[in-house]
Amino acid sequence: MSNVILVGGLDVAELAFYLFAAFFLGLIFYLRREDRREGYPREEDLTGTPLADGGIFARATPKTFTMPFGRGTLSVPNGDRDAMPENVTARTMPGTPFEPLGNPLTSGVGPAAYAMRADRPDVDMFNRPRIVPMRIAEHISIEGRDTDPRGLPIAGCDHAIAGTVRDVWVDRAEHVIRYLEVALTGGGVVLVPMPVVQVTERYIDCDAVTGAQIAGGPQLASAEQITLLEEEKVQAYFGAGYLWATPERAEPKL
Predict the structure, then answer these.
(1) Number of other CB atoms surrounding residue 112 within 10 Å
(2) Which of 157-185 are b and which e, b meaning 16 or more Cβ less than 10 Å from the residue's Cβ?
(3) Which helix (H) or strand (E) holds 198?
(4) CB crowding 63-102: b at 16 or more within 10 Å, else e
(5) Tens of pLDDT along 47-87?
(6) What is the band of 10 on the pLDDT scale with cuts at 50, 70, 90?
(7) CB 27, CB 33: distance < 8 Å
(8) Torsional sign, CA 19, 21, 24, 29
(9) CB of 222 within 8 A of CB of 164?
(10) pTM for this predicted structure
(11) Residue 43: phi, psi to the nearest 5?
């Protein structure tokens, strides 16, 4: 075909280019709206006052999701905003960090920050609590060639013994260990995330926090399940220990 002119000086190649350019610009516009679905509207750093949406690239209109297992619907964005922290020193200028007051591991700011997730357990495809102690998930067991942590003492980064591992909490959906259930020496039970410990043949080493700080870990409302919000708090508590467990960790290396 020697003649590809459609109208006037417009040929097939030009038409394809214009269609692609229009599609690409529309895609950018759509993605810029969608990437503002969470975390918007932005807030003023010191006061929490909402800022302008941003003209034609304003945040997307609310989208409604149907939740599984009869949990109703959820629309986002919905205007909900986290409250400004109150257990911190006052900021003197934008950009300066929050300094927590009291116990920094439970402050909810910096490395101890957590999201306000639903206060209900995560569930598997059968609507059962997903993360449970192994005494409930009877079909899951520890591989015979691995060290069974149950019955071993657990020590903090200061080598102080906090208690004894009483059970292992496993993920029914992925068949991995998520937490160690620790019976504390002074009484009580806490969960320690598996990523912050190292299992040896004689003891469990937790390098995130001290032995005393293990005992101060977040408490669960149930002895047989953990909610999404409780998971956030447990992970934040032990994760913050890598900065705030000891005064030396909060100081620069050089």
Answers:
(1) 22
(2) beeeebbbbbbbbbbbeeeebbbbbbebb
(3) strand 197-199
(4) eeeeeeeeeeeeeebeeeeeeeeeebeeeeeeeeebebee
(5) 777 777 666 666 677 889 899 988 889 887 777 777 777 77
(6) confident
(7) no
(8) negative
(9) no
(10) 0.79
(11) -125, 150
Does pLDDT of 193 surpass 80?
A: yes
Rg value, the chain, Cα = 26
pLDDT for position 138: 79
CA 194 vs CA 74, 177, 234, 243: distances in Å: 32, 7, 11, 18
> What span, in angstroms and rounded, lies between the C-alpha atoms of 198 and 22?
55
H-type alpha helices, the chain = 12-34, 211-215, 228-244
Instruction: Name the token pair of 50.
Output: 């909402």
Q: 68 to each of 41, 64, 127, 132, how far by Cα in Å? A: 28, 13, 9, 20
Residue 114 CB neighbours (<10 A): 19
The candidate with the shortest Cα–Cα distance to 169, out of 128, 122, 130, 199, is 130
Give me the residue spans of the domains in the chain: 5-34, 119-247
**Quick one: average pLDDT of 134-139?**
88
Rounded Cα distance, 167 and 163, in Å:
12
Q: Residue 12: what are its φ and ψ, rounded to 5°?
A: -65, -40
Residue with tokens 């591991």: 105
ω into 68 cis (within 30 of 0): no
Question: CA-based diameter of the chain, in Å?
Answer: 90
Residue among 95, 93, 113 at smallest CA distance from 104:
113
CATH homologous superfamily for the domain 119-247: Photosynthetic Reaction Center, subunit H, domain 2 (3.90.50.10)
